[in-house]
């Protein structure tokens, strides 16, 4: 799910956008590798090469038009694309959302509009059931039923509708992509699709950071554990395995500055990732300079060490651990990207934990989504993804107005790419591999760690934070870990180890 926004070190400018209208087929994005689907103009995901040339069909206020602005395929592919669409969806499926006035006679237009109105009156519960039925048909290799359901679902989902309608648009895109991934080799011949400008992506990440407490919950709970463990230390080294924009460390530097007896000397080692590098528009020196400026303002001795390699390739030599420094290691929303034994014999997930344990850290913090999609088969993985992100989209709906100009972009570029990756990809191409905290406990235990209980102060501080949000958010402490949920669904878990 998560990419790190930059906190309020500098002002943000939010680009204007007209995405608030009711739209149907939209792209999803993944920075690691690009793809496009017949429903998309500029998506990305690392799993498969899917297409989207020709025409992107977008419906606004029940009228339709053609949008070729985001084409990812040259004109040479047009005939093949039409052939592929026919194979996937039947020769007439796309006609359902074409401009009725221009493409059909008036009688057929009235019939199709009547069908559209009927489908839009279907309850959200029926939409969930139809999404599940489509996924079940695919899991049973009933492709005729799956394609039939996809035609129906295309008229039921909307990126500007109710939470389940918006999520349904991206779930459907994932289903189409999963179906296509075993199909024509045409998908392997596509060009890369454009991403949003880096400043735009950063603004979308910042909006998500502000409207939902998930990031702040993770950062505050991890920082609380680090501050508690380091309260008597004079030299502190923090290794952040996905530093993003450096947002997490703003409040910790401020807290250390106010420590009785004076602040410690802080050294932060930040490990980069491609999405954050693109969003910030440059390397880790940008993060280091911002944090150094902040530390100087609060009179905290500070040093920054950048590591611009993939997390799975990090070695102890990259981390520069020094004698006499108290070491803290931070894993916030990053370990689920590490392939485990089900993907590779190298098992970077467990190897990384063993390497960190060998460094003798005083505290290790873990923040992860509370979801079970790592080794699950396609159908249970789909249901888990729908259940998890349905709660998340509902929580966004409470805070971010339905007509907010940037809401579609926030969901599309910060959440939808993960949804599609989980559903559509298999093997090493599926990089979103979440596990429940119980499984993480097992992995940390096998690596030699023992639990580090979170301070009661952390719990009370987060409860104060949640007063600024909907009362449907739920905070629970169980077995030394904190869980943040939406109503009855746990969404994020945080704990610490030593």
Automatic annotation (TrEMBL):
<dbReference type="Pfam" id="PF03514">
    <property type="entry name" value="GRAS"/>
</dbReference>
<keyword id="KW-0805">Transcription regulation</keyword>
<feature type="region of interest" description="Leucine repeat II (LRII)">
    <location>
        <begin position="286"/>
        <end position="318"/>
    </location>
</feature>
<feature type="short sequence motif" description="VHIID">
    <location>
        <begin position="236"/>
        <end position="240"/>
    </location>
</feature>
<feature type="region of interest" description="SAW">
    <location>
        <begin position="424"/>
        <end position="498"/>
    </location>
</feature>
<protein>
    <submittedName>
        <fullName>Scarecrow-like transcription factor PAT1</fullName>
    </submittedName>
</protein>
<feature type="region of interest" description="VHIID">
    <location>
        <begin position="205"/>
        <end position="270"/>
    </location>
</feature>
<dbReference type="InterPro" id="IPR005202">
    <property type="entry name" value="TF_GRAS"/>
</dbReference>
<keyword id="KW-0804">Transcription</keyword>
<comment type="similarity">
    <text>Belongs to the GRAS family.</text>
</comment>
